[in-house]
């Protein structure tokens, strides 16, 4: 069997290409969405909370919250095809996060913003909006997260995310996030926090998967490279969206 045939038969996780991430980012920032929509860094934090938590809800349960807190925040799609395309991008980004956490949760790479400030030549990593998305993800399933809040190390692991992303913190806590350097230092602590949180909920996720009659791995949709592409082009996945994921 040739190397190309091996690639054709391989099932791969449908991670978004850079071009597709830009496409999703452009839609989130467009006039089709409300002022309450989550932008890309906030969205990534929101999806990471859901993927690392106690159970993975269905897309129809988490997608509406991306647009905003109310039904009136739903986007205005140009067509059913555009709605299907954006839903596909969101679902695939979630699947990629789940896959990444399963592979190496301790070295997870969040989508953080980079900030520059007048009079300062440095570029600072800023996870504030990412953390806000993560805290929003927790709020959508807050009762399910209670065991972690009550655990010995849970609040410690969550602390950098909480300080950056909670809607309200104390005056003393606000002193810890005043400067770009402080926010960057907290942002750097987040990957380790995600690794701990993901492992904490692993037994409950396995129990939920077992109750649903599936293994943890089967919870991540895989796309055969010979299957029709989910973007609706009519071409095979390997010749369309999957082409950008094959190494030369």
Structure description:
By secondary structure, the chain is mainly alpha-helical. It has one domain. 52% of the residues lie in helices and 6% in strands. The chain contains ten helices and four strands, in the order αβααααββαααααβ. It has a two-stranded antiparallel sheet with strand order 1-4. Strand 2 and strand 3 form a beta hairpin. The radius of gyration is 19 Å and the shape is globular. The N terminus and C terminus are likely disordered.
Helix/strand-derived category reads mainly alpha
Q: Cα-atom Rg, whole angstroms?
A: 19 Å
Number of strands: 4
Biggest sheet strand order reads: 1-4
Order of helices and strands: HEHHHHEEHHHHHE
Number of domains: 1
Tally of helical segments: 10
Helix content: 40-55%
Binned strand content: 5-15%
> What kind of sheet is the major sheet?
2 strands, antiparallel
Overall average pLDDT: 84
- Gross morphology is globular
Contiguous low-pLDDT stretches (5 residues minimum) are 1-11, 215-225, 229-233, 241-248
Distance between the termini: 18 Å
Question: What labels describe this entry?
Answer:
248 residues; mainly alpha; two-stranded antiparallel ribbon; 4 strands; 52% helix; 6% strand; disordered N terminus; disordered C terminus
Layout of secondary structure:
Layout (H helix, E strand, L loop, with lengths): L2 H7 L1 E2 L5 H11 L11 H13 L6 H9 L12 H25 L8 E5 L2 E7 L1 H13 L5 H4 L4 H12 L5 H4 L5 H32 L11 E2 L24
Brief overview:
With 248 residues, the protein is mostly helical. The protein has helices spanning 3-9, 18-28, 40-52, 59-67, 80-104, 128-140, 146-149, 154-165, 171-174, 180-211, and strands spanning 11-12, 113-117, 120-126, 223-224. The two termini are 18 Å apart.
């Amino acid at each position: 069997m040739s190397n190309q045939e091996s690639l054709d038969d391989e099932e791969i996780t449908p991670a978004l290409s850079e071009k597709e991430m830009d496409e999703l980012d452009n839609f989130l920032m467009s006039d089709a969405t409300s002022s309450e929509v989550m932008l890309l860094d906030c969205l990534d934090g929101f999806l990471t909370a859901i993927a690392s938590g106690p159970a993975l809800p269905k897309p129809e349960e988490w997608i509406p919250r991306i647009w905003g807190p109310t039904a009136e925040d739903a986007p205005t799609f140009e067509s059913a095809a555009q709605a299907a395309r954006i839903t596909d991008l969101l679902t695939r980004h979630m699947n990629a996060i789940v896959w990444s956490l399963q592979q190496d949760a301790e070295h997870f790479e969040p989508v953080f913003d980079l900030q520059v400030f007048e009079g300062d030549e440095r570029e600072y990593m800023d996870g504030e909006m990412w953390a806000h998305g993560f805290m929003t993800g927790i709020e959508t399933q807050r009762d399910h997260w209670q065991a972690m809040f009550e655990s010995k190390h849970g609040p410690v692991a969550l602390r950098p995310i909480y300080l950056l992303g909670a809607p309200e913190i104390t005056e003393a806590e606000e002193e810890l996030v005043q400067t770009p350097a402080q926010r960057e230092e907290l942002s750097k602590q987040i990957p380790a926090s995600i690794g701990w949180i993901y492992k904490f909920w692993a037994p409950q996720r396995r129990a939920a998967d077992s109750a649903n009659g599936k293994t943890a791995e089967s919870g991540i949709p895989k796309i055969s490279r010979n299957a029709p592409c989910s973007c609706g082009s009519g071409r095979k996945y390997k010749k369309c969206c999957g082409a950008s994921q094959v190494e030369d």
